Structures are given as structure tokens and as C-alpha cells.
Amino acid sequence: MVFGRTLAGSEAIRQRHPQVSLPARRLLMLFDGRRSLSQLPSVVRPNDVPTLLRELEANGMITLTGMVLHDDPATGIHPDTKMTQVKRALAGVFEKELGPQASVLEARVQDCVSLVVLRNVLREVITLVSQRKGPEAADRIAALVKKHGPF
Questions:
Q1: pTM here?
Q2: pLDDT value for 131
Q3: Cα distances (angstroms) measured from residue 111 to each of 72, 84, 118
Q4: 57 lies in a domain?
């Protein structure tokens, strides 16, 4: 899990808020919204982490910003998060390149359930765009995908 500090959390650190226990404060200082719990240094006993997380969440000092099953060493981004980012970047692109008839291609990309499926669909769809519109159009789409790194 990836947690980020809220404004209330940052304020609690700055003012050493009495509502927050010392172990919770130690943990709170580590949350940056980018690193998963497994990437954080151990500053509290592992068995205490769930209780401290509940305490911080109940006080509105942290918010869950993502879930990571396997951290990508290059980016630290979970594959599902990366897939969502790629899908967002591609929203409307196929219709822009090929017109309204490309809504089926758009739907195929948006319906992908994993990066493996998305990769395979994109290969097929980019090849189709290249055949219908030319390599320049396919290169524009490929460039949008490459901005999100390898997958």
C-alpha cells in the first residue's frame, strides 16, 4: 500500500500534535505518497503497523494513494496503476486518428484487464492504425505509450 500525508498529517508533524502517538508520528513522517509500505524504513514494530495505520487514517492524517503488489524497480509504480495511466493517455486518440469508426478500437484498449493484454491489444491496434493512416499516426500513438515506460 502507498500512503500520502494529508494537510492534517503534515500539520500534526509540524506541531507535534498530542492526538498522535509517538510511533504513529514516526510512521507518519515517512509517508510521501510515492513509496509503498515495503519500501519504507522500519521505524516501528511490524506488528504495530496495522494499528498505527488505522489511527492515522481515523484522524485524517494519511490517505491511501495506491496499491502495489509488485513494485516496478524502474518506476515504483504498480502495473495496474501504469495500465490506468496508459489508458487515460490513449483516451480518444484512436478516434482522433481514425474517426468515429475507431470507437471499437478505443473500447478494446479501455477494456484491457492487465498490462499483458494491453500490450498485445496495442500492438494489434497500432499496426492497424499504421495500415489505415500511415506510420506517422502509429508513431504518435506509440510515443504516447512510451512516455509511460516499458511494460
A1: 0.50
A2: 92
A3: 23, 11, 9
A4: yes
Question: Could you tell me the three cell numbers for 68?
Answer: 502495489
8 A C-beta contact, residue 36 and residue 68: yes
55/84 same-domain check: no
Other Cβ atoms less than 10 A from the Cβ of 123: the count is: 11
Q: Which residue is listed with cell 474517426?
A: 99
In a domain, 72, yes or no: no
Phi, psi (rounded to 5 degrees) for 3 = -115, 145
Which of 11, 37, 66 finishes a domain? 66
CA-based radius of gyration for the chain:
21
Asked if residue 100 belongs to a domain, the reply is: yes
Q: Answer yes or no: is 74 within a domain.
A: no
Name which residue leads in pLDDT, 115 or 21: 21
Q: What is the pLDDT of residues 88-119, one digit of tens each?
A: 889 899 999 888 888 898 899 988 888 888 88
